[in-house]
Amino acid sequence: MERLIDLTYIIENNMPIYPGDIKTSLFQTNYLNVDSYNNHRLEINMHAGTHIDSPMHLTESNEYIGELALESFIAAGCVIDVRNQPTIKMKEEYKKLIKENSIVLLYTGSDKFYGMSEYYESHPIVDMELCKFLLEKKIKMLGIDMPSPDRYPFEVHKFLLENKVYIIENLTNIDKLLSIKNFEVIAFPLKIKADASMTRVVARCFY
Questions:
Q1: φ/ψ bin of 49: left (φ > 0), alpha (ψ from -120 to 50), beta (otherwise)
Q2: Which residue of 65, 94, 97, 199 is 20 to 30 Å from 31, comparing CA positions?
């Protein structure tokens, strides 16, 4: 038996964005009763909503996210409950909890502030020691319910991306996975020539 859990925010007009980014514009251009068909137009920054950062975002890589191996975006998942930790540090129990070649999701509870100023200004940050451990485990991606795992000058971003650990930002509903021991994360980017891509992130849970 299996169940799918959507970890993605909806894409909509004027949705929340990282401070300084261009606003999302989604509008209907054609109407069935006028044009005999419906159509919509989307203008969006690749870092709006739930998305994946690839190495091109903050490193010298010239490989577009749409050119990366599909195997990078699907793997067994693991959730770590890191609520109430301003700095998310390495803990001994992670050595058994996190498996090699997995996709690790950090649950901070920050998604309850999505769209508010504190979501962008007061989110936790990931400690570099934990990042180095994740690299040792050869994880494929780090997923977070925050806009970023760090702040300027984005050393965590650079460390992970330089080592081909991709970053999923702005996740939601991770709390629904806390009691599930066996699940897979599926998070394919668009086949697009860009440094990042919006994505529909789904957890496929097995019982």
A1: left
A2: 199
**Average confidence (pLDDT) over 105-131:** 98
Task: Residue 164: name the closest of 81, 61, 48 by CA.
Answer: 61
Please give the mean pLDDT across all residues of the chain.
98
Tell me the DSSP string of 31-67: -HHHHSS-EEEEE--TTSSSEEE-GGGTSS----GGG
Which residue shows structure tokens 């091109």? 56
Please tell me the pTM assigned to this model: 0.97
DSSP summary character for residue 111 = G
Structural domains in the chain, sorted by start: 2-9+45-206 (3.50.30.50)
CB neighbour list of residue 171: distance below 8 Å, 6 or more residues apart: 7, 8, 50, 105, 111, 143, 144, 145, 201
